[in-house]
Amino acid sequence: MIGNYEEIQIIKDLLRESLQGLSITEISRKLHLHRTTAAKYLDMLQMKGDVDLRIMGTSKIYHLSCRIPAAVLRNFFDGPFILFTARLTVREFSSELSDYGIIGDITGKELTDEELSPLIDDRMQDLLKQAVFGTPSETEFTTQDQKDQKSLHIRIIPIVFDDGRAGCALLIHDMTDLTIARREVEICEKEIKKISEELNEFVFSCTPDGILKRVNHAFCSRMDRKPEELIGFSYEPVISHEDLERLSKMKQKINQITPSQTISFKSIQPDGMMAFEEWTYKGIFTENGDLSGFLVTGHDISREKQLEEQLNTFHASFEALVKQRTKEMRQANQDLMKEIARRERIERELLMIEAAFNHASDSILLFERSGKLWRANETSCRLLGYSKDEISTMSVFDINQEITPAIWDNMWELSEQEPEISRVISTHVRKDGTIIPVEVSRTFFTAGPMTLFCSIAREIREITAGQ
C-alpha cells in the first residue's frame, strides 16, 4: 500500500507540472509503470475527484482537478442540494427544495426548464457551467416569492459521481434568519448611534482591556481625533497615577450585582489644559455572566469644580449653594434623558400605528372638508388598483360616484347630529373603471384643529348558492 500511495502521489505531481495534461501512455512511460497500472491509478484518482478527463482524438488526457465525490457530499452536507451532470441535467436532489419554490420530481430536468426557475436564473446558469469545468463559486440569492421571501447563500462546486463522471452541485444555505437578525442589529445600532450623537456627554464603548469599539461625536471632539483614529485603539485618560489606580480598582468592582460605577478626576486635555471630568462605567455582560466590555459616559465638570473652588475661597457659606446648583444641573440632565426617552417612545408608537393603519384588512380612506383625500392605507390602494402617488390625487367624488358635492356638503352639515359611526352599502370605482359594491363604516372625527371624514370599506363579494 505504501508503494501504491507513493506512485499515486508521483502521478499527481506530474499532472501538477503539466498544464496541458498527460495521457496514460505518457504517465506510464515517465514512471516506468505498466500502462494498465497507470490506468488503474488514474481511475482511482478520477473517482476521488482529484483528476479530470478530457478526450482529445483517440487519447484520454488527464489533468488535476478538485472535485468532491458525490457520495461524500450526500453524507456530510445536511442542507438542500441539487446535483447536475456534465450536461447540466438534474441527476439527484434533496427533499427540502419545496421550501424554495421547486416542487415535484425534477430528475432529468435541464437548466432552462420552468420547474427550476425559482432557483436558476441566467447568472446561476453561467456559474453552473463554470463549475462543470472545475471552477467553484459562491453567490447570494433571494427568492422571488414576496409572501415568504428567503435569503440564500448558494455554493456551486465541482463534483464527481460514483461512476467517475464529472458534474456540479448546487448547495443551499438558508440565511433568512441570519439576514433578519443582522438587519435588526443594524437598525438597533443606528438608533443607538443617533441617540448618542445627539448627546453632549462623552460616550464610548470598549472591551474589558479598554480597546475602543464605538465613539460619539462629543467624545471625538474631546479627544480632537476622528472616529477612525480612535476605534480599535486602547484608551486611558491622561490622569495622575493615583487617579489611574482608583479607576483600575473601580473597574474591578463592576459585576452583575453592581453593574455601574462613577468616578471623577482631573485630566490633561489634548490642548494641554487641565479639566475635571466625571465618568460612569457600566458593565456589559454575556448570557453566561462574563464581562464583555463597558459602556462609558462622561462629561466635563471643570466649570462646577472652578465655581466650587472660588466659592470655597470667598466664603464657606457658599458651599451649600454650589451643591444645590450641581444637583439642579444633574436634575436637568436627567430631565433631558427622560424627554429623549419619551420622544423615542412616541416615535415607536407612531411607527406601530402607521404599520397597523397600512396593514389593516379593510380599506381606510380619510377625506378633508373639501373632499380631497388626506390619507389612504395600503389595503385601499390594492382594492382600488392605485399606487400611493396616484391615489393621493383623488377625491371622494372620484372614488364614490354616488356622492355629489351637494350630498357631501349635507353630510358635513349633519355630522354633529348623526351617530358616531354609520354603516351603509355603497360602491367604489377602481382605476380600471370597475364599480364594486362595498360595505362602508363612516364617521367624522376631530384631531386638534382638523376634522376628517373616515371611510372604512370592505368589498362585498357574491355569495354562491348553498353557502
List keywords for this structure.
467 residues, Beta-Lactamase, alpha+beta, six-stranded mixed sheet, 38% helix, 5 domains, Arc Repressor Mutant, subunit A
In short:
With 467 residues, this protein is an alpha+beta fold. The chain has helices spanning 2-17, 24-31, 35-48, 70-76, 122-132, 176-198, 217-223, 227-230, 241-252, 302-314, 319-358, 378-384, 388-391, 396-399, 405-413; strands at 22-23, 51-56, 59-64, 68-69, 81-85, 90-93, 137-142, 151-160, 166-174, 202-206, 212-215, 260-268, 274-285, 291-300, 363-367, 373-376, 422-429, 435-447, 450-459.
3D architecture notes:
The C terminus is likely disordered. The protein folds into five domains: 63 residues, Winged helix-like DNA-binding domain superfamily/Winged helix DNA-binding domain (Arc Repressor Mutant, subunit A), CATH 1.10.10; 107 residues, PAS domain (Beta-Lactamase, 2-Layer Sandwich), CATH 3.30.450; 113 residues, Beta-Lactamase, CATH 3.30.450; 45 residues; 101 residues, PAS domain (Beta-Lactamase), CATH 3.30.450. 18% of the residues are buried. It is flat and about 110 Å long. It is of the alpha+beta class and 467 residues long. It is built from 15 helices and 19 strands. Helix content is 38%, strand content 28%. The strands form four sheets. Strands 4, 5, 6, 7, 8 and 9 form a six-stranded mixed β-sheet that branches. It has a five-stranded antiparallel β-sheet with strand order 11-10-14-13-12, sandwiched between helices.
